[in-house]
Design brief:
three-stranded antiparallel β-sheet, 113 residues, globular
Length: 113
């Protein structure tokens, strides 16, 4: 499942992604990033699938949830398709100190749901 939220700069934060090798997609056919950026309202609070290439993977420092639980292994990357790009945030694992590399690398083709 992906949550899309519009930021002040008009970009989106997509949370919780699935690689193409992961479980079946529960959304319809992939939507282009350009369609989301051009008209985000029809997609707000809906599950959508986006397909593209991973760029600029960036690791994040551990962060603390409001409950006090620390989360590790979070990272960001840019998802690019022929129509545009958006930022994707992967939340990592909370409550367990893990030191694992991101599940994606620059150039990977992924399906974000």
């Amino acid at each position: 499942m992906v949550c899309l939220t519009m930021s002040a700069r008009g970009t989106f934060l997509a949370i919780l992604f699935a690689l193409t090798s992961s479980a079946a997609v529960l959304a319809d056919e992939p939507v282009t990033i350009g369609a989301i950026v051009a008209d985000p309202e029809p997609h707000h609070m809906h599950m959508v699938a986006l397909q593209g290439t991973v760029q600029q993977v960036r690791l994040l420092d551990p962060y603390r949830q409001p409950s006090g639980t620390v989360c590790y292994g979070a990272y960001l990357f840019t998802l690019q398709d022929d129509t545009g790009s958006l930022d994707v945030a992967v939340l990592g694992v909370c409550g367990l100190a893990v030191d694992s590399p991101p599940e994606v690398s620059d150039g990977d083709k992924v399906l974000v749901t």
